[in-house]
Amino acid sequence: MAVYTEVTDDALAAFLADYDIGTVVAFRGIAEGVENSNFSLRTTTGDFILTLYERRVDPQDLPWFLGLMEHLAQRGLVCPQPVHGQDGAALRQLCGRYAAITTFLPGVWPRRVRQSHCGPVGAALARLHLAGADYTPRRANALGPQSWRPLLDRCRDRANEVQAGLEHELDDALTRILAAWPDNLPVGHIHADLFPDNVFFLGDTLSGLIDFYFAATDLLAYDIAVCLNAWCFEPDFAFNVTKSRALLRAYVQTRPLSAGELAALPVLCQGAAIRFLLTRLFDWLNTPAGALVTRKDPLEYLRRLRFHLSASDAAAYGL
Amino acid sequence: MAVYTEVTDDALAAFLADYDIGTVVAFRGIAEGVENSNFSLRTTTGDFILTLYERRVDPQDLPWFLGLMEHLAQRGLVCPQPVHGQDGAALRQLCGRYAAITTFLPGVWPRRVRQSHCGPVGAALARLHLAGADYTPRRANALGPQSWRPLLDRCRDRANEVQAGLEHELDDALTRILAAWPDNLPVGHIHADLFPDNVFFLGDTLSGLIDFYFAATDLLAYDIAVCLNAWCFEPDFAFNVTKSRALLRAYVQTRPLSAGELAALPVLCQGAAIRFLLTRLFDWLNTPAGALVTRKDPLEYLRRLRFHLSASDAAAYGL
């Protein structure tokens, strides 16, 4: 639930005067997304999303994100397009925040994942990876494997408050994951956060991808591992291999996986699980009472992590 | 910030099948309103708001609210219109909640109130009062003066946690207000919650009123008193008599006030201040840590209450 910054009508009108998209007709905060303030904006010329960048986003990264979104769209991937002001700049300032207007995407994100969603997600992820190949600028993954040990160290004192023995279990898992982490797999630009709330559908047809603000340059197959965590567990944390098979098969039809990528799937999935576990654990221990953001339970990812630690090869994922 | 209930795409599609408004094109939670879950819904035929009624709304009152909105709109007041299903019913069920679809209103609520907003608000309030005159069903005001003493009693033990001496100050004020409460003023249907976030503007033109879920049958002039509290204090809690004069003058041009209503303005304003003070105080003391709803500071209304207690007549409000 996220509107951290209130935008007055005066400020909005002045902001819009620097664009050629007309004047405001409707403006409402969107109750989704946890990192930035998002508003649904209708002007006399159409529908847009206004984003004010808050907290965790490093302003220096914003041109990279916006550039990636433009690059991907130029290559046919449906994602929000930054709208440029009259001076050509897409990244602007509003109410003391960096801000951008992007195009509105039709579609609804699936509150309950069905098997029929998973193929389209795999295919779209592969298209994203191919479309990003010639986007030259790079962005290091701030939440990549090098960040996990420091993140655990910042939670270490209080990890066992969340579950007895959690510190020890995470230490062991992390040691094993980092020791096995592959260093010779194909690298490219990854979405890194392609959860259901970032994928829009119209019926069973995928209509677009949103929220590229965790995107980075990292192992492409790690992005698949994020999706397997995000799309293929049931509400009771049972792994649904039918869903993962659908996701992987659709992916490899567009971008085949190397033998090395296939072999690394278990450790990549373990890494993706511990990445979300650690950021959720950090937030869990550090979110003040009464904050606007609902804390997400880190232990949901402990359940996933244990599954992936038990997986011996890609067959566990249906390939 | 309010989306308390997640609506799955399956449930939404099934729900929409009972209407003649097409299929879903976009669906997003709205980060506004604290009582119900609101979603912005675009279908193949247009834009709508989907509301799921939560918590404080008594389901038995919903037909009255929806009926009032239809009645007011038929008499030219711009407010959301309930959309009827194929069976004629506007009030339906979705995800275990009562639910209704209403029409989408263009406009933006003013995050910062300017004097130019206040006249249109006064005029719209008067039109609402006249348009409601022949809506026969009545709804007692559950948050009217008879509710204030019991509400204070439920907060009494812990009121002084919020501010030293608060219990005593509220007891004194409430005794004074209830003793002076008028019982012979014109009665009608009031909005009872016409705060800036419930009034949409396009530029300086008022484009519609929303959120009738506190509406009730009560003293019409009490509704004016709510508006004077909601629209005419500056962020530092100074009363802006220029704003209140604009609001009142515009009101009386459409619906003249009787001598009795004018004379009662101070006590009605005191009552409106203590009503919002008490519900905020109750919420402040009873909102669990980590709740999605931001607690609003009850003491903002103590500042207003003190101003109104110092007002001796309608001249204090610019009339």
Structural commentary:
The structure is a homodimer of 319-residue chains. Chain A is of the alpha+beta class and 319 residues long. The first copy, chain A, folds into 2 domains: 9-103, 2-Layer Sandwich (Phosphorylase Kinase, domain 1); 115-317, Alpha-Beta Complex (Aminoglycoside 3'-phosphotransferase, Chain: A, domain 2). Chain A is built from 10 helices and 9 strands. Chain A has a 5-stranded antiparallel beta sheet with strand order 1-2-3-5-4, with helices on one face. A two-stranded antiparallel ribbon of chain A has the order 6-9. In chain A, a hairpin with a 2-residue loop joins strand 2 (37-43) and strand 3. The radius of gyration of chain A is 20 Å and the shape is globular. The two termini of chain A are 37 Å apart. Chain A binds chain B through residues 1-3, 6-10, 12, 23-32, 40, 42, 104-108, 110-112, 201-203, 287, 289-292, 294-295, and chain B through 1-3, 6-10, 12, 23-32, 40, 42, 104-108, 110-112, 201-203, 287, 289-292, 294-295.
